[in-house]
Amino acid sequence: MDVTGITKTATALNAASTQQEISVAVLKKAINLSAEGALSLIQAIPDNKSLQSLPSHLGQNVNTTA
């Protein structure tokens, strides 16, 4: 049995595991940043209360013959 080969394999598996943990951490950070960005965009949507001063007949029909 080659001890050097087993050691190299164990080291490679450990390095791969570490790299995978780092990749998952970076992915989680990217997802969190995307979620924060999406939340800020949602919060930036203007309030719909300003449209309540419009006449009631506006926005009720859609022109499908255009």
Briefly say what this structure is:
This protein is mostly helical and 66 residues long. It has one helix and no strands. 62% of the residues lie in helices and 0% in strands.
Structural class: mainly alpha
Helix content: 55-70%
Cα separation of the termini: 80 Å
| Number of helical regions | 1
Beta-strand share of residues: under 5%
What's the main sheet like?
A: none
The residue ranges in which pLDDT falls below 50 over 5 or more consecutive positions are: none
Task: Give keywords.
single chain; 66 residues; mainly alpha; 62% helix; 0% strand
Task: Describe the protein's architecture and organization.
The chain has one helix at 3-43. The chain has one helix and no strands. The mean pLDDT is 86. With 66 residues, it is an all-alpha fold.
List the helices and strands and how they pair.
Blueprint: H1 3-43
